[in-house]
Structure formats: structure tokens, C-alpha cells
Write a structure and sequence with these properties.
heterodimer; A: alpha+beta; 9-stranded mixed beta sheet; 7-stranded mixed beta sheet; B: Sortase, Chain: A; 8-stranded mixed beta barrel; 2 helices; 8 strands; globular
């Protein structure tokens, strides 16, 4: 293309100029054709004007992060929605039925969609959703989760009032209510069934009231390897908490805001036997006694902010609680049974207990700040004091980092115990909660002495979002270790405690205040020190039965064995056999004498669903099979599960077309006794929209810190699909190409103008 | 002449770049024509038909959004090579019409350019290579990271997910993906 350089050929200036002009036109022509060709594919306009349409296509999970209290046009933050909660519980013998009414009141001038993240009793079987709009009551239907969401979103788009109850974790639910008009009040009522918990001589119920902010470990970068061919299969990352948006709600700083979400509680207690002491552990209550076997308990102050669990215990008037209970319910064409059996305590004198190896693990993360760490330290010190000289022990503390006190377990002699006491005494609560590495360290069995008993005592509030990772770790590494969970604080993650203890074949206890430490730790150590009832089996003499739990766990001292079963006919007897220490033990329950109970079929189904989840965790069944089982049970018994939701839609549209709908994510209180700064870092300037972002930032850096200090196992969540890279650089190349062409044209013109000037000079 | 080297070099480079860009689009366009032919034959014969003799992939389905008059032939697999010619059926996800989630992925600037115009409620038709037609309705959309799609291919229900790069109008590639979720309306309609 050297012809371009012919401008210096003086003999034929006009020819040169002609050639240049021709080339110029040619290049321009080619450029125009190419741009026209490109325009076939690249239409820039819709790309930039599409933003407004995209806005309403965003997933709720996207939109909800960051949207908080509504800001009106003047920039004032006003509480968008006020929430009141009423809990009404009826205890009938072995079971309780709770009705939770959430009152959503819209005090703004806008149409609002409200979402509220709330805790659920761990064994609770949610089976009913009602939405009350004015004088209309709309009853919810159970649907597969996706389908329910579609129904809800369609109603939302059409301007109809709708309510949706979804499970995020077995003990964490979300209620969404669409189209609450300005000044309107909508009631959402859910009901659940739960078994009463028994321990020794004491019965108890627990109403969780607030979801403590969870620590969600940052995704861990496994490797970075970008292929040159641009296929997009490159850096590999896995998120331990894929639904982090769904389990995070704004949290109010108690120093800046009055507590929200006032809650009233009524418990109608019909124990079925003459009652002795009835006690609420964390709330002041009024107790009425209509007769010797029933009580009505209400809050002394009317309402309390939803910032700590409500715990009620009751004891029989008699010295000993009944050691056996058998209840039945007839639903459809089947009978359901619920059996409670407390095995006799083994005689301690029979044999010398086996020497033990006890590994204490204490959570000193930021969520444990305030009173929780005091309770945890007191509990651990009590545990150390209970060790026998023949025992061996170790102490592990963790936040986002981890320290193991001794390289391997050491004898419980005076010197080692003094070292441990000093170590525990100096602990401060701070940082993230990387629980999985700590559990791995605790389960690593370095001594491997088969004639000792290996026990792990794990003290935590369980405020993590990657529960399943922890369960997977336990399932894979438990070996011969037994795991005993100690739930600390005013709102512990009970689901994590129960499931971890079940997978770890141990037991769990709660410590909700400092004065519970001594009593509860004493009973926990009674469980650790006494032989358990092992090898338990249940047999029905006359009838086929579907018994749950499928794998009957070992029973520790003072705990009852709780069995639920679905049987074909109510005849014959149930025989339970096992071994207490080295003594055989058996008990026979005639089915005819079973008392009438309520909601037992739901409890059976709920427990079967737990069985399926556990079988999935320990890889006994494939995820697909487990899901199938769960779905069938959930749809058959109308239960909300991971796979099913309740949805209620008011057929009459209420929001006029064209009125915008704003999303309001209701803020939660910080659980009582928690330290805001310890959880969220420094106090943010703007409350409460900041904490979440700050938290996310903080957890990011913490995640990286951890990656340096300990090797964190990253288990890929099974079944999530990686999406290929789906962008070409065609447009980039074409845009760059066009720019270069334009530039060259510009230079051509520029040179052409300058050429005659030079010749003249 | 030295002064004209720069504009010439720029012009050559510009044309080269532009040509490469245009080539990607031309390839995408031309391949679809060949694929349509192969797909039609595939439906007729019930055999896997390769669109050209050296192809390492073959058409498995046709996606259509009638309202937008848009559509594309989907290829087996979602490798970079396959995606240059058409949307890919992401490995290990369900077939259209089967229980589970079928995931189709394509470039946002070629075959899935029309995704930005798909509205919630739009009907998406998927014809499988055995000739069966399944009609899906777009339900919701989301934006996720490519490795945190949250798609469980074994999830209950009959779902279709169309995935492409996000943001839709960006020119560089990033880790985010735009997902359009659709649910089967009723089979064999």
C-alpha cells in the first residue's frame, strides 16, 4: 500500500491527489458498509434504554439486599411497616400447638411488600397459614416451593394481597406479604405443632423469638486458572452459604433505636398430670391456675420486644415424672403413635467408668460478645473442674482463627488444668465464626485409644449460615467421637445444636443465662460420665409400623427415648429393648392403653423429614431420593419444608394498576446480651442500612484471614450448576475497530490538508 | 511517505479488529442457518445430525419466543466452541420437558440478545430433537455469579433456565450471569 506515499511525486500532483481521494472514498465506503453490517447485530439503543425494564425483572433476593426502612421523598427514614407478634400456645400433654400471628401495619403513604425473617421452633411442623384482610380470612395452600413463589409473584404483580411462608432453615422462616395498602393492616397467622421436650423430671418448651445475625463464611478461592481459549472455564469458587441474602435481615443497633417487634405470649398449659413448679426462665410472667393440672401463663408486662427466646419449664407435683407415656391419634386410614420412655439410670457402682478423652471447643467469635462469652467461659471452667485425674483433655478456641491449646490431649493433672484455666480466662469475644475448621480439629482423633471414651463438648451460639457444611464435616469425621453441644446465649441456633448432637450421637443443652450454667452443665456432665442406653430397638408385636427415628440414637441419662410411628392397626404391644451399661433392658407398652393425643401425625411426618435430611447428609440416600421422600411427606401432611411453602392469595385485586409497590424488609432486634459492635464492627453512621454491608465486608476479610491460617475445607454444594461464559468480545473488537478506522480517516484528512502547506514552504 | 504510515497502520488494524468482531457475528449467523437445516433433518430422521462434517456438537433443541419472533437452535454442551455457533445445553442439566431444570446458555450479544426483551409471562417454546414441543412461561429472573447459580438440576418441578452474561449491555465479560427462569405450562400443547 505504498501508493499512499505518492504525494511527493511533484510531476503529477493532480494525479496523486486523485488517487488519494479515490482511496479515501474507498476506505470510507468500506467503513460505511462494515458499520451498516455491524448495525444488523449491534443495536445500541435497546441496550441502553432497557434499564427501566430490567428493574422489575430483578429477583427479590437482589432487590431485598439494601432496601430497608423506606425513605420518603424528603429523605426522612420512616419505619415502613410496624410489626406486632402474638404467640398463643396450647400444651396438651406431650405436644403443643402454637399459633403465631404477625400483624403487619403499613404506616406509610405507599403500597408495600413486607418480608419478615423469623425463627421457628426446631421440631416445629408448620402446617397452616391464614391471611386476614379486613373481615376476610384467606387460608393458605401447601405447594412446591417454586410453584408457591410463582403464585405469590403473580398475585403481587396483579395487585392482589398475598402471603407466602417459606423455610430458609428448619428453624428459620420468611413470611412475605404483598400489596399492603397505605394505612392498612394485614394479619398473617401460622400454626405449628411441636413435641414437648422432657429432660429428667422437667418438661419444657422454647419459643424462639429472634434470628441472631449469622456469620456467613466468605466464598473461598480454590484456584485461579483461566484457560487461554476463552471458554470461560476459569477461576473456581464455591459459596458455603449460597442463600446468604435470604438469611440476612437488617438488625437495629439497640443503642440508637428502641426495640421493635413487640410480642405477646400466652401459654395454656394442660400437662395431663398434677403440676408442681412452673417457671419462665427469661421473661417475667403471670401464672393463673384454674385447676391442679393446668396453668395459663401470660407475660407480666403485656408485650416484650422480640429479642430473646421464651423458655418455660414445668415439673410434676409428684416426686418423679412418669417414666412412660404413650399417645395415639387416628388420621385418615392410619394410626399414629408417640411414645416417651425414660430408661432407668444405670448403677454407677457396678464398674469403674472408662477413662475419657474430652475435647472442649469454645466459640469466642463476635456474636458471643456480651453475656454469652461469660456464660461460655463459666461453663467451660465448670467442665474442666469435673475432669478426673485419669481423664485426658484438650481445649480449642475459635473465631475466624483457631488455637488448639495442647498439640494432643494431655492428662488432667493440676499443671495442665491450670494452663487451661488461664487460657480460658483470657478469652475475649471478637471476629468471625469459622466453625468447620474447629470441628475438624476437635474430631481429629490423634490418640486413637479404643479403650477410652472420646467426647467433644462444643460451646457456641451457632450463629452461622453454613450449617450444612458443619453437618457434612461431622458426618465424614465423627469416627468414635461423641459430640455434646452446649447452646449459649439468648437466641441460640437450636437447629444446629440438635442436628449436630444427633449426627455426633451425643446430646445437647441450652444455657440461656449465667445462673443456668451450674445446673445445666451438671446435668450435661451426668450424661457424659454415665453409661448411655445403647443398642435400642423397637418392635411392634401385631402390626406393621413405620418407626422414626429410623436409627434410634443412644439415650443419655435423664433423657427420654421419643419414638413416633405410623401403624396399620392399634393392637398388640410395642417392645423396646436395649442395654443399660452392660445390663439388658426392655419395656413393653400395650397399644390399647394409649391416650388420645393431638397432631401426632404431623410430628411423625416432621420427624420422618428430619430422617430423610440426615440420611442425605450421611450419604445413605441420594439427594434426589431424599427430596422425593420429603416432598411426598410434606404434601401429604401439609408441612412447610425446604421444598414446600404455604401461599395464600386474596382473589380481589387491591392495588390499583400503576401504583408502585415498595419492598420493606422488616428489621430485627439484636438478640439480648449481644454486643452490636462485636458483631458488626464499628457502629455505622447510618442505621440500619449499613450493618449488612459492613458485615459482608468484615466477613470477606475474615474469610481471607482464615484461609491463611488454617486450611478450610471447601465442599462444593452438590448439585449447583456452573454457568459457562456467555459474552464474546465481538462488540469490543468492533467498537475498537471503528475507533481506529475513524482515527485513520482523521489522519488522512489531516495529512491531506497539511501537504500543500509544506510544499509552499 | 512516513506521515501516512500511521493512518494506514491504524486503518489496517481497525479493519482487522472490526473484521474479527464481524466474523464472530457472521459465524453465529451462518452457523444457525446450517444448524436449522441439521435440526430439521434431525427431527425427520430421529438421528443425531451434525451440522457440518467436522462439527464436535449437534443440535438438540430449538428455542423460540413467538412474541419477539426470536429463536435459536440449541447445541449439545456448553463449551466455548459450541457457544460460538449457538446456545448450549449446559451439561448435567435436565432435558427440556423432563423433571428438573434445563439450562441453556448463550452469548448475550448474539443468540441470546433477545433475552433482554423477554418479559415475565412471555411464552418460550422449546422443540426437542424428537419433535416434541414444550411450552414454558417466564416467571422470574435473577442475577448471580457463574459459580453460585443456586440451580439444582435435580430440583422438583419442570423448569427452564436461560442464562447469559450480565450486565446485558456491557462489552467486557464479567462473573455475573443473568438467569431467566421459566416453568413448564403444559406438555404436548
Amino acid at each position: 500500500m505504498n501508493e499512499y506515499g505518492v504525494i511527493d511525486v511533484d510531476e503529477h500532483p493532480s494525479l496523486t491527489r486523485l488517487i488519494r481521494l479515490g482511496l479515501f472514498l474507498l476506505v470510507q465506503g468500506v467503513a460505511v458498509i462494515l458499520v451498516g453490517f455491524a448495525a444488523l447485530f449491534v443495536s445500541f439503543d435497546p441496550a441502553w434504554s432497557a434499564t427501566s425494564r430490567q428493574a422489575n425483572l430483578l429477583q427479590p433476593g437482589e432487590a431485598r439486599s439494601g432496601t430497608l426502612l423506606l425513605k420518603d421523598d424528603d429523605g426522612n427514614t420512616q419505619e415502613a411497616i410496624r410489626l406486632g407478634i402474638d404467640v398463643d400456645i396450647t400444651v396438651s400433654g406431650p405436644t403443643l400447638r402454637a399459633r403465631v400471628t404477625q400483624v403487619f401495619r403499613n404506616t406509610t403513604q405507599h403500597w408495600v411488600e413486607a418480608t419478615y425473617l423469623y425463627p421457628m421452633a426446631t421440631q416445629g411442623a408448620v402446617d397452616s397459614l391464614k391471611m386476614v384482610v379486613g373481615d376476610r380470612v384467606i387460608v393458605g395452600d401447601i405447594k412446591e416451593r417454586q410453584q408457591a413463589r410463582v403464585i405469590y409473584e403473580q398475585a403481587r404483580e396483579r395487585g392482589q394481597k398475598a402471603a407466602l411462608t417459606e423455610q430458609e432453615r428448619p428453624n428459620m422462616f420468611t413470611n412475605s406479604v404483598a400489596n399492603i395498602g397505605p394505612g392498612e393492616t394485614v394479619l398473617v397467622q401460622i400454626e405449628y405443632q411441636e413435641p414437648v421436650r422432657q429432660s429428667g423430671n422437667e418438661y419444657s418448651l422454647r419459643v424462639p423469638m429472634v434470628v441472631g445475625p449469622r456469620y456467613n463464611p466468605a466464598p473461598i478461592v480454590q484456584s485461579v486458572d483461566l484457560r487461554a481459549d476463552g471458554s470461560g472455564w476459569g477461576s473456581s469458587r464455591t459459596d458455603p452459604v449460597p442463600d446468604r441474602d435470604r438469611i440476612t435481615a437488617p438488625v437495629l443497633d439497640p443503642a440508637k433505636h428502641a426495640p421493635v417487634n413487640p410480642t405477646s405470649i400466652t401459654v395454656r398449659l394442660q400437662a395431663g398430670f398434677p403440676l408442681g413448679e412452673v417457671k419462665s426462665h427469661h421473661h417475667a410472667v403471670k401464672v393463673d391456675s384454674p385447676d391442679h393440672a393446668s396453668r395459663t401463663i401470660t407475660l407480666a408486662d403485656g408485650t416484650v420486644p422480640a429479642d430473646r427466646d421464651f423458655e418455660l419449664t414445668w415439673k410434676p407435683a409428684a416426686e418423679k415424672a412418669p417414666s412412660v407415656g404413650l399417645f395415639r391419634e387416628h388420621v385418615g386410614d392410619a394410626d399414629y403413635l408417640l411414645a416417651f420412655v425414660t430408661p432407668p439410670a444405670a448403677e454407677r457402682t457396678e464398674q469403674k467408668p472408662l477413662p475419657r478423652e474430652v475435647v472442649f471447643v469454645i466459640d469466642n467469635s463476635g456474636s458471643m460478645g456480651g453475656t454469652s462469652i461469660v456464660q461460655a467461659k463459666a461453663s467451660l471452667l465448670y467442665g474442666l473442674s469435673r475432669l478426673q485425674p485419669a481423664d485426658r483433655f484438650n481445649v480449642i478456641r475459635f473465631d475466624h482463627s483457631m488455637d488448639v491449646l495442647f498439640p494432643s490431649s494431655v492428662p488432667a493433672d493440676a499443671r495442665n488444668l491450670a494452663t487451661a484455666n488461664a487460657f480460658v480466662g483470657a478469652l475475649q469475644a471478637n471476629g468471625g465464626t469459622e466453625m468447620v475448621p474447629a470441628m475438624r480439629a476437635a474430631l481429629t482423633d490423634t490418640l486413637n485409644e479404643p479403650d477410652t471414651v472420646r467426647q467433644v463438648v462444643f460451646l457456641t451460639d451457632g450463629a452461622i449460615g453454613n450449617e450444612q457444611q458443619l453437618f457434612d464435616t461431622i458426618a465424614a469425621m465423627r469416627g468414635r467421637s461423641r459430640i455434646f453441644m452446649v447452646g449459649i446465649g439468648s437466641a441460640p441456633n437450636t437447629y444446629l445444636m440438635t442436628r449436630a448432637a444427633e449426627l455426633g450421637r451425643g446430646a445437647f443443652t441450652h444455657i440461656g443465662s449465667v445462673d443456668q450454667v451450674e445446673e445445666h452443665m451438671r446435668s450435661l456432665f451426668a450424661k457424659l460420665e454415665n453409661p448411655a442406653v445403647t443398642g435400642i430397638s423397637a418392635k411392634f408385636s401385631d402390626t406393621a409400623a413405620d418407626v422414626t427415628p429410623t436409627m434410634i440414637p443412644d439415650i443419655y441419662r435423664d433423657e427420654p427415648l421419643v419414638l413416633a410411628a405410623r401403624i396399620d392397626k392399634l393392637s398388640g404391644s410395642l417392645e423396646i429393648k436395649g442395654r443399660v451399661g452392660d445390663q439388658p433392658w426392655s419395656v413393653k407398652l400395650p397399644l390399647q392403653n394409649a391416650a388420645e393425643g393431638k397432631g401426632l401425625s404431623k410430628l411423625w411426618a416432621r420427624r420422618k423429614i428430619d430422617d430423610a435430611e440426615i440420611a442425605r447428609t450421611i450419604r445413605q440416600v441420594s439427594p434426589d431420593e431424599a427430596d422425593k421422600t420429603i416432598l411426598a411427606l410434606a404434601l401429604g401432611h401439609q408441612l412447610v419444608t425446604r421444598l414446600t411453602s404455604l401461599v395464600a392469595v386474596d382473589k380481589t385485586p387491591s392495588r390499583p394498576a400503576g401504583e408502585p409497590l415498595k419492598l420493606s424488609q422488616l428489621p430485627l432486634n439484636l438478640p439480648a446480651g449481644w454486643d452490636f459492635e462485636k458483631v458488626f464492627g464499628e457502629r455505622p453512621l447510618q442505621v440500619p442500612s449499613q450493618p449488612k454491608e459492613r458485615r459482608a465486608d468484615a466477613s470477606d476479610t475474615r474469610g481471607q484471614l482464615t484461609a491463611k491460617r488454617v486450611v478450610v475445607p471447601a465442599t462444593q454444594k452438590p448439585g449447583t450448576i456452573r454457568l459457562p461464559k456467555t459474552a464474546t468480545d465481538a462488540e469490543l473488537r468492533m467498537i475498537a475497530g471503528s475507533i481506529l478506522l475513524m482515527l485513520s480517516l482523521f489522519f488522512f484528512v489531516f495529512n491531506r490538508r497539511r501537504a500543500p502547506v509544506r510544499r509552499a514552504g | 511517505m512516513r506521515r501516512s504510515i500511521l493512518p494506514v497502520a491504524l486503518a489496517v488494524l481497525g479493519l482487522l479488529l472490526f473484521g474479527q468482531g464481524a466474523y464472530i457475528h457472521a459465524k453465529a449467523l451462518l452457523a444457525q442457518i446450517l444448524l436449522k437445516r441439521a435440526f430439521a433433518e434431525s427431527i425427520a430422521t430421529g438421528q443425531i445430525v451434525k451440522p457440518w462434517p467436522w462439527a464436535d456438537t449437534w443440535p438438540v433443541a430449538r428455542i423460540e419466543v413467538k412474541r419477539l419472533n426470536a429463536g435459536a437452535i440449541v447445541l449439545a454442551g456448553s463449551s466455548g466452541q459450541a457457544l460460538a455457533f449457538g446456545p448450549g445445553h449446559v451439561e448435567l442439566t435436565a432435558d427440556a420437558g423432563e423433571r428438573g431444570v434445563a439450562v441453556y446458555s448463550a452469548h448475550r450479544d448474539t443468540h441470546f440478545r433477545f433475552l433482554r426483551d423477554v418479559k415475565i409471562g412471555d411464552e418460550i417454546d422449546v422443540t426437542r430433537s424428537d419433535g416434541k414441543l414444550f411450552r414454558y412461561r417466564a416467571d422470574w429472573s435473577s442475577v448471580t455469579r457463574f459459580d453460585a447459580s443456586g440451580i439444582d438440576p435435580l430440583a422438583p418441578g419442570h423448569e427452564l433456565v436461560l442464562s447469559t452474561c450480565w450486565p446485558l449491555d456491557a462489552v467486557t465479560s464479567g462473573p455475573d450471569r443473568y438467569l431467566l427462569h421459566a416453568t413448564l405450562i403444559d406438555p404436548e400443547s
